[in-house]
Amino acid sequence: MKSPRWSIFLLFFFVSSAALNAAEREWQTLDPTGRPHARHEAAFVECEGKFYLLGGRRIQPVDIYDPKTNSWSEGKAPPVEIHHFQPVVWRGRIILAGAMTGKYPHETALPRLVIYDPATDEWTYGAEIPEGRRRGGAGAVIADGKLFLVAGIINGHWDGHVAWLDSFDLMTGKWKQWPDAPHLRDHFQASAIDGKLYAGGGRRSSAKTKETFKLLEPSLDIFDIASATWTTAAEELPEPRAGTFSIAHDGRYLVAGGESDRQQAAHDQVHAYDPLAESWSELPQFTRGRHGAGIVFHQGALYTCAGSGNRGGSPELDSLEQLKPYP
Questions:
Q1: What is the tens place of the pLDDT at every residue in 212-246?
Q2: 79: number of Cβ within 10 Å
Q3: Is 203 part of any domain?
Q4: Measured CA angle at 224 (ends 218, 225), to 5 deg
Q5: pLDDT for res 236
Q6: Which CATH number belongs to the domain containing residue 317 in this structure?
Q7: Which of 92, 113, 155, 215 qualifies as a cystine partner to 126, CB 3.0-4.6 A?
Q8: Is residue 317 part of a domain?
């Protein structure tokens, strides 16, 4: 029979371990050497073991984070202001597609792909996007050797929401139109899991009717590439919002951060959709809510950086957060 003192020790041990594990499941703000440029409506993406913060309002240099040294360095600025886009990585290069340029609320869609090569620190223009299919605030994802552009908005934040789905064959350079998605949306990011595209969150931005933040889209649309068919998940996003950023990892589709008409502060929630369970779950919340940013997975941890801390364009953030280990 254990003594009371031993029982108290075991209780203390388990409570302390539980507290430690809980702490390990919280986002932590890192203190790196150097700082990136504060920005929002930008991209944050991993390529060859380093993280790249690109674009956003105004023309700013690329900021490069090395997780091995916990330090930032600076790369070249892009040839044009580029914002409201989801970056994709293809053979060591970062492709920016479905993007906007210019000022609110009549931003215009970029007519070409814009490409950054981390190895040479050089920017180039890629293929032209078909004139009748150009838009910004679109989801962009690579699957089956193709770059897919999902939904978006034609006329900045004013009007022209589309449910288009287009693909660009990265080997042949040919564009193809696919069936429209069930729902219109912009200001979101897509992901690909096992031959299917996932498009969740976002809104129908409408500065024209003074409803820029209001017309949120809670549905999750899923496209099966093999059968070229769309379905809509039975469960909606638990906390509808736009300006979200996404990543697919461990078979789940993550929807992070965002903004809405319901609160001034940017959202700090991170939700994960499990295609097998056909349900959403909630991950630990960011230390600082943000929208118009990005999320990265690298060596067992999630990272997020930059974005806006409130609904709209300010304050712009430069903080870097880490969730380790990944839940």
A1: 999 999 999 999 999 999 999 999 999 999 999 99
A2: 11
A3: yes
A4: 130
A5: 98
A6: 2.120.10.80
A7: 113
A8: yes
Identify the DSSP state of 3.
-
d(CA 204, CA 151): 10
Work out how many domains the chain is built from and give that number.
1
Asked whether the beta carbons of 289 and 268 are under 8 A apart, the reply is yes
Distance between CA atoms of residues 159 and 132, nearest Å: 15
Q: How far apart are CA 189 and CA 169, in angstroms?
A: 20
pLDDT per residue over 135-181, tens digit each?
A: 999 999 999 999 999 999 999 999 999 999 999 999 999 999 999 99
pLDDT score recorded for residue 7: 44
Q: What is the pTM of this model?
A: 0.92
| Owning domain of residue 251 | 27-323
CA distances from 112 to 127, 128, 174 (A): 6, 4, 13
Look at residue 20 and tell me if it is in a domain.
no
Q: Residue 209: phi, psi to the nearest 5?
A: -105, 15
